[in-house]
Queue: 2 jobs
Job 1
Amino acid sequence: MFTAIAPRYDLLNHVLSFNIDRLWWRRTARMFTHILNRPEARVLDLCCGTGDMTFALSRRAGKASPKILGADFSRAMLTRANKKSAGTTLRWVEADALNMPFSDESFNLVTSAFGFRNLASYDTGLSEIARVLRPDGECGILDFGEPGGMIGKLYRFYFRSVLPKVGTLVSGVKGPYAYLPASVARFPEPSEMLERMRRAGFREATWTPYTFGIAGLYRGKK
Ligand SMILES: C[S@@+](CC[C@H](N)C(=O)[O-])C[C@H]1O[C@@H](n2cnc3c(N)ncnc32)[C@H](O)[C@@H]1O
């Protein structure tokens, strides 16, 4: 499914989110400045897609230039990420988030933007992230939420009725953009997600809503 939408993925992301996606990636990267400032740090951006979260991490790191790796199981997405990263030190790995080809305790930071929600098992995803993090390592999972109140009503109309039609029209692929609202509906509420994080071994688990809770960042420390 992700391979099918890869050619128009970036364009649709920016159009359908009115460019707010850039702010969310940037804000997420800023939360981890204390790790990104360390030249010896190793950072993994999981479900990296075409790499926009990875680039935000890299920009935030600046001259400290820690090792930053993007991983995804769609080669088409990684090919685009690779093209966009020419001349940088970013590296891309084809990998399944549920069975990662990385040793235990390899990374100081693992992020995932809008990818975690798609995993077939959230608990396996969390335990894999915990496994590859070093002690004291941190994780940041940015994903969609469902705001309440009037904003929630407007958002749900847009997300369930307008977005799938525009997404299908522009991508030329039936399915993925109808799947998107369904995948958000099946994603646990913040309280449940935080409980799952604690069970997977994360302490100081928190959720910070972005833009009325349309998106939000889960953070935890190993
Ligand atoms: C909605 S895109 C997000 C891409 C990027 N992080 C962003 O913020 O634009 C979700 C990505 O997760 C990847 N993905 C989904 N399940 C995965 C899994 N089990 N292992 C690795 N990647 C996965 C898809 O291939 C896709 O590129």
Note: The beta strands are 42-46, 67-72, 91-94, 107-113, 133-144, 203-210, 215-221.
Job 2
Amino acid sequence: MAAIDHPMQKLVDAEHGTVSREIFCNQDIYDQEMDQVFKRSWLFVGHESQIPKPGDFILSRMGEEAVIVTRDRQNQIHVLLNSCRHRGNLVCRYDQGNSTVFTCTFHGWSYDSTGTLVALPYHDGGYNEMPKGDWGLLPARVETFQGSIWATWDHTAPSFIDYLGGAELYLATQLKNTDGTDNGAEVLGGIVKWRLGCNWKVPCPDTDTTHGWITHKSMALALGVGPTGNPVRPDDGRSISTRQVRPRYTVSFPEGHTMGVTIPEEGDPSWADSGIWSDKPVVRESLREKFEQRKKRMGVMAHLSVGPAIFPNEGWLGRVVRIMHPQGPLMTEIWTYFFVDKDAPTEVKDALGSYYEHWYGPGGMTQQDDMENWYTLTISSKGPMARKLDLNYQMRLSEPPLHGPSTFGLPGLFAHNYSDENHRRFYQRWAEYMEAKDWGELRVREPAK
Ligand code: FES
Ligand SMILES: [Fe+2]
């Protein structure tokens, strides 16, 4: 692979709205971003509902590396590097389970749910000089937010709330119960995982509002077939969500978080009232009833429609989370989590699970279309001629953000719905991580008091 021969400003030129293709295929740049982006950022590693009981654990990823997310006997959550301190073997090979001890299969070193080394064969007489306390699994720093679990390796990073920089309002919207109560969601079933031959940044951020009309033209739009079997656009003229009813904006934060936001307004129809659930009255009525409670609790904010993408590799599509795990410059493992209300009836959970699978599973109606483009743009961009050509992110480049923070009483910088502003913000933040020596140079505001 070619060495990096450009300063970061040349690779990501925010002023002119161009990005070098090198950042999607160069091994040196990839190695640097594993070190400077993924080791410093807060990363989504799972949700508390996946480990409800003491001793529960799941496997997850932070960048390329595998971590074990555990709940110890005192109900504390830990995120531990899945690498034995003896000779580096995996200490956990199961995707999930319940165990208070993880025993390495090579020589039998054993660790508890806090990562502490608790037993090792031949210790007596063999390792008398070794302080066991120094040889536990490497722990990450952990915070939870509305049930979601986040971790970072960087102990100088700001708190997770400061890292969100105001985007917490949007993230909370996704993690609340439909009735508006806090921490009301759970992960439905297992995580859907697949590998795709593209760089991890290609699907991030996923607020490319100008691709859907052609990328997803065939099934969802031209045929008018939705994943429930009902038309995507019902006969009453209202569409699948409120997004076509109210003006929608791209919204970004200096911290690199990006999303599409529909300004909430009284009287907007809820998801329950769209045509999707017309032949599933149990689902429709359950969602309707909860939405009425949501309005009582949240007022007009009950109508907020948003799909936040938290820098660097987490993004929401509806109530689905996708994590783009890097696996080398030209390979990404996409993990998809489906969220439902904890207290939803089984019939509602099943219907939503089927709906999500049909939209966002690897064979789903939209993901396979996206994946085809993400893969072919990768192979057509990495050759010696193609990789010298910059990518274009110039849409509405000269247009200042439409609205500054709080114009709508909502945080973030608002730009036109059809704009590359979110992409420019994402890559600019990425370049800042790549250049910054430490978190002192990355902070965008003072810590909250
Ligand atoms: S590598 Fe784990 S016990 Fe030896
Ligand atoms: Fe898409």
Note: The chain has eleven helices and 23 strands.
